[in-house]
Amino acid sequence: MKEALSTTLLGMVTLLVAAVLSAWVMGGFSPERKLPPDLSVQAAEMGVQVVDTLQMKEIVESGSHLILDARTRSEYDQGHIPTAMSVSVQNFEESFPPIAPMLYPDAPLVVYCTGPTCDDALRLIERLREAGYPGAVLYVEGMEGWND
Amino acid sequence: MTKLFPRLLRLLLSVLFFYSGWIKIQDLQAFAASVDGYQLLPSALVLPVSAILPWLEIWCAVALWVTPPFRRSAWIWITLLLIIFTLAKISVLQRGIAISCGCSGSDELMTWKDVGTNLVWLALSLAGWKWDKRG
After folding, report:
1. Sheet containing A50-51: order of strands
2. How many CB pairs under 8 A join A and B?
3. What radius of gyration do chain A's Cα atoms show?
4. Are residues A44 and A110 in the same domain?
5. CA distance readout (Å), B82 to B57, B74, B96, B111, B122
6. Cβ contacts of A78 on chain B, cutoff 8 Å
7. Would you put residue B79 in left (φ > 0), alpha (ψ -120 to 50) or beta?
8. What is the mean pLDDT of residues A116-123?
9. Which domain holds residue A60?
10. Which of A25, A49, B77, B127 is deepest in the core (most CB within 10 A)?
């Protein structure tokens, strides 16, 4: 009984050591590894204006911007910000054409995704810029902030 | 039947843990951000934990197919991890933090359904462990 227990514990320690070594070999403890910067930091680097939840509520109430949801269609279908339209960046070629007729070059757009750690919204803003629509701002807090 | 059932459970759990670990390794930074989002660990621990955890999942998945002492250790780790993951999710939902679970590459916001899914996996893990002991 005692022997079985110590064998099991030894096995557990071995698995943990194997995991630590694997992480180490694959660069998991590299000093260069840092938490990804907040979406607002990346947005600032790209020159994208950001809005907070209060401003987002005003935008929704006033209808001043077209609101684009950059997440997947299934995530959008499970819940989204009122009046938002789904433009999944993962499926941009198919999701963008249906909303393109509603846009004009300086159209005020606001884009969001899940929250401050997802980058789908920034990727969509990039794609929109490439398509000739530079007027998109970012709602950094996304669905996480909206649901809070 | 008596041999098929524990093997099926082993297969299920090993595929789940291997896939779960593998998908996290594909984007360690995103996983680190997910771990950070749970707001349970001091920031100094977020990166090391997020680096080790996926590998522990993978090694546990592999260890389920080696000799019995290792299998027992793997079952204990898997059960422990599932308990920790479930408690972490409950804690997040009770604190009203809206984040995605970061479990298998999904960006969908966490709900109580995720806790339920975890509990099912936990039950399967306990059953697998028990049946493996018998076998």
Report:
1. A50-51, A136-139, A109-112, A66-69, A85-86
2. 119
3. 22
4. yes
5. 10, 12, 21, 16, 6
6. 108-109
7. alpha
8. 84
9. 39-147
10. B77
Co-location of A8 and A54 in the same domain = no
Residues A70 and A104 in one domain: yes
Any A CB within 8 A of B52 CB: yes
CATH of residue A97's domain is 3.40.250.10
> Per residue in A128-138, pLDDT tens?
999 999 889 99
Residue A85 CB coordination number (10 Å)? 14
Contact A28 B107 (CB under 8 A): no
pTM of the model: 0.70
CB pair distance less than 8 Å for A26 and B25: yes
Give the pLDDT confidence score for residue A43 in this predicted structure: 84
Q: Are residues A78 and A6 in the same domain?
A: no
Residues A98 and A143 in one domain: yes
Interface of A with B (CB under 8 A): 4, 7-12, 14-16, 18-20, 22-23, 26, 28-29, 33-36, 71-72, 74-75, 78-79, 113-115, 117-118, 120, 143-145, 147-148
Q: CA-nearest residue of chain A to B68?
A: A8
Indicate if A127 and A65 belong to the same structural domain: yes
Residues with pLDDT less than 50, chain B: none
Q: How far is CA B77 from CA A137, B4, B13, B103, in A?
A: 45, 23, 12, 17
The total of structural domains in chain A comes to 2
Residues A66 and A124 placed together within one structural domain of the fold = yes
The Cα–Cα gap between B21 and B61 comes to 9
Same domain, A50 and A118: yes
B7 in A contact zone (CB under 8 Å)? no
Binary contact (B47, A148; C-beta < 8 A): no
